[in-house]
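re: ur question from the group chat, yeah i did fold both. here u go
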Amino acid sequence: MKQYKRYLITTALPYANGPVHIGHLAGVYIPADIYTRYLRAKGVDVVWVCGSDEHGVPITIKARKENTTPQAIVDKYHAIIKKSFEDFGISFDIYSRTTSKVHYQTASDFFLKLYKKGVFVEKTTQQYYDEEVGQFLADRYITGTCPHCGNENAYGDQCEKCGTSLNATDLINPKSTISGSKPVLRDTKHWFLPLDKFQPDLEHWILDEHKEWKSNVYGQCKSWLDQGLQPRAVSRDLNWGIPVPLENAEGKVLYVWFDAPIGYISATKEFTPDWEKYWKDSDTRLIHFIGKDNIVFHCIIFPAMLKADGSYILPDNVPANEFLNLEGDKISTSRNWAVWLHEYLEEFPGKQDVLRYVLTANMPETKDNDFTWKDFQTRNNSELVAILGNFVNRAMVLTHKYFEGKVPELREMTDFDKEVLNEIPRIKSAVEQNLETFKFREALKEAMNLARLGNKYLADTEPWKVYKENPDRVSTILNIAMQITANLGVIADPFLPFTAEKIRQMLNFDGKEWSLGGKSDLLSANHVLGKVSLLFDKIEDDAIDVQLQKLQSTKAANEASVSKAVPQKPSINYDQFSEMDIRVGTILEAERVPKTQKLLKLKVDTGIDVRTLVSGIAEYFSPEDAIGKQVAILVNLEPRKIRGIESHGMILMAENSDGHLQFVVPADKVDNGSTIK
């Protein structure tokens, strides 16, 4: 294997429309943190960059739902994510964001270089356009009926009921989620990265030169390449993002998949003026840590972008993990089915390493894995407390008791003592070998074997029984126990940094260089130890029950939102129904009713007249949103005075399970006065 002068580590940019959850940690950030800490301990020149991904349609959708701006959304979640990472001990060299000035400039320059080289293909395609709001619609702003399963609420890019990927033009009866109107197809020009032209180079680079990649990564890449790569748009019609830096490109931004990976480059620029040696020197090893949903972007699309530029190195490895489930169900941010990092840190203060340990032990390295709160409790109590914590505590307490808190001398050793000491460098070597091949679960298991070794050694030698008859023997036993403890302070550090630091403080030992690991003379005789404190404490059932109840409440709320329906009202006969005159009308004017929060005064063209209505929809629609809407009106309802205004009729609304109101509108525009039967 080639020897590199330096390493550049990147981790997928978390999307700034919500907090970080345990799936993100197990899939991306904990393995990267372990690996980077290990490299730093070896004295390697390494830079680890990350940041918030802050552009794209989901940000605009969330902003619209919360009646705020996209910038406010990303500011809020960038702060939450950044603080959560810091509190958890994720040790980025820099955590940046894609709304920074440096990133805007870097992404624009990258696009322009490829544009001037003639890399892009300009294409005019047809895209749905909302005539009422005057804008092109991203796929997620279009819903309709799925042609495969009949789901009437499929999105323009995917049906979430059957999981089929879609194009917006595949939908039956498409409509805009912004205005509710039927969109029309219009011509729009975009720039495409011709991935098909890079296919031969990518096939050779991946399939021939990187057979050592993880099977899940290699297999997914091969599948994409076997299907044949197609040109992919690098721009889109949107008002949130980095503007396409060309004349006559108003209203067009860089597509987020093109913009986001350039964030690795811009973050490195922010971190160091020597950024080019990390991105353009062949003596740098570039490694991307990502989840499986990002494999194609980091193994095919971003490398194609880098190849198109021509001055950048390509990733040497992309050790992507699979997904982590929660209590047997897929983690879902939209369903709130997750363990959020910022909440965990509040509810389990000081237990960062417990979560690090459990997520590493359950890391979904080659297949999806599951996190359960009972397993979390068991691993804490049976492994961290009973094995690691127990050994360190016993070794420290016995040394304080028998040798006044000083490391005793290593006197005459038995063959058994020598066997135990020989295990220390073997374990260190096994940890190292697994880390080098991105097998973090096995590496952690080997590191814990050091604590198991110490526990067994004390149990077999029983120094508390031997001391009165043979204090010299106990001197040797506890010297060896202290050497094992000091090695834990070194070897456990990449996995459990808070715990390893506590161990070193208790030992009055500040060495954590990787080269110290495996040695049996880290602490000299008469070295004065510090105070003893417990590394871990038991997690009781009630703490776990709180978490399980929290999830149960979430599950119940989700089920209610799906199945909850207002009970049917008493039956009416046909004659009673036929007496209701429901027609389609158009809202001509709208204004808030003074001193009220819920009421709008509306002027509506019903097709038979123009009349005034008062409607309690102001919490969900501004006057500007309401004007121009076609609505369903019960026109023969007796007039009634509301806040001094005589209201002639009632607008029909659909109420979601969360209480949110939507207009009941015809699928296509019809004449005012059309009856609803």
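okk and heres the other one u asked abt
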Amino acid sequence: MCYRLVLVIFFLLPFDDVQGQPQDFMDRLDSIRAKVVATTEDSRVKALDLMELSYQMSSLGRFDTSAVLSAEALRIAKILESDTLISKAYSRIMFDKLITGFDENHKLLYDTAMFYAERAQARLGMINLHVDFGYYLGRYGSCPDAIGHFAAADSLTRLGETPSSLLLKTRIRYCGSLRQCDVFALIPDIVRETIPVAVKEKEWRLLASLYDLSMTAYSAMAQQDSARVYLEKFKDILPVVNRPATYGMFYNNAAEFHYNNKEYQEAYDLLQLGLALGKKRNSPPTKLMAEYYGLAKSSLGLGKLAEGENNLKESNSKLEESKRYFEIVLPFFSETEQVEVVEEIYTGLAEINASLGNYEQSYKYWRSGQLIRDSLKASQHHERIEELSVKFDTERIKRELAESELSLYEAERRADRNRLVALGLVSLLALSSLLLLYLRSRRQRKELEFRQQQAELRYSLLRAQMNPHFIFNSLNAIQSFFSGKRFELGNEYLGMFSQLVRRILEQTGQASISLHEELETLRIYLDLEQLRMGEMLSYAIHVSPEVEMELLDVPPLVLQPFVENAIWHGIAPKNGAGRIDIYLNYDERLESLHCIIEDDGMGMHAGNKPDNGHRSQGVDITRRRLGKGGRIDIRNRADQEAGVSGVRTELVIPLKG
């Protein structure tokens, strides 16, 4: 102990100048140096002690001192030419730097440390390297790389006898990384294999962590019975562990399990215990946000249950409590830019205010949540577009490169053969230029005429899509929901209706949109009609795998008129429930999209043909918009299949890109 104390003082001071210190201090320092020289003849022990001290300084946040100590350890290790010590020293240097961030320099330090560990055949050193480096990779968001390092470490533990402490560290961090990366299927088997080791070593805190990992993994995989078994095991070991941090982990994770199983009272009680524990430990408010957020959701669930039981007093009390908790956590999650949680908070506040009759406030929260949802959706869509664009551009560049090489080869072969006809080609080029100028002028006139027609068509299309009957029925549906105090359905219908109107107004002014956007608009329209008609309407959209929806452009609102015809003229007059099926396939030969819309409605009869009123208007406009390459075929399904009712509409849509 005396030796270590002297070593601490010695190596914390002499690497910096100590000028200006009192003489008695300098005398004491010289005395300490003399003692160290006398007690550190074993350079290997000295290097190991330096690395241990470096670790201690790092844990205290004194990274500069730690760096000096580890650098001195590396110097000694190189003098000794010990690959094992060199690997350990590089590891210490790397981990001090990893605490502040991650970059390629850290990867270089890791590779160097692993090189010396492998050369020394230091299996335990390699395990530690994989585990610690994987841990930091997981912290900085590199899930696949982190899991790869933990898997490598786990494989190395099986190649020989491994100390229990290192085995437990490896397995628990491995499972933690799998949970962080949403890879739950591997966790239960690893935990089952590791539990006997923790029991044998009486590592009750680590055993509690293993139970927690299995509980959350089984819950995420919807195996609730197995999750509940480990929940009880976790609960039973709490008095043995008897650590506030372990109790806090149990309260939060067990509460989340109960909440996901709609056991709101159990979740609420556990979160109250967690909140009381945090306050008792004087935790700062920011550390209690998870408990407050969980209480907000649990209170909302209890309020809705009480509302369903017509216990309005209890319902209002719980809803007010939920509202208070949501308002506590909203500033924190907004400031930390956790947008998905903020969107859920706005949704919860909108629902609570609607139930309490504060409709204006409910609408404001709903609008705020809608803006965040649109932003998230746009971000995800943009990422998908970029991914597909990179894939598309890569294939295109490869194809163009191959074509260029082939063209160059053919050009070289033709060069000698074509010299004699060069003069004739020049003359022909001059004549062709005159012809091209004439054709270009003619084409420009046609393009102007076409644009004018397109503008007229888009105006007609807008009038066709904004069917007065549909708007009238939608407003009636909204009024019915709210007058019947079905506020949740009313809010949902109103939000979808406003989103559909906005999309129609935006897309009608565009020449083309992606097939993905077209189908999103169609789904909103169908969901509105389904919400209005209830069980009387069902639908399904079937898209073939070869159809790249984000890369294919189609005229906007090209499918909706036919779907509207199917609902209004086929299914609505029918006595009973109706269904619509939409099939989309790519026709490679025609470079077009082949679409089939089928319903099981009334079909077309003498007084119900597609050439009257609004039913014909949208179809005629679409036929003109598709142009020469497009085709529309509408006929009764009974003409092709005996005993089947309804209408089958086939469209061939030329693709824009």
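fwiw on the second one: The CA atoms of residues 94 and 110 lie 7 Å apart. The first strand starts at residue 513 and ends at 514. idk if thats what u expected
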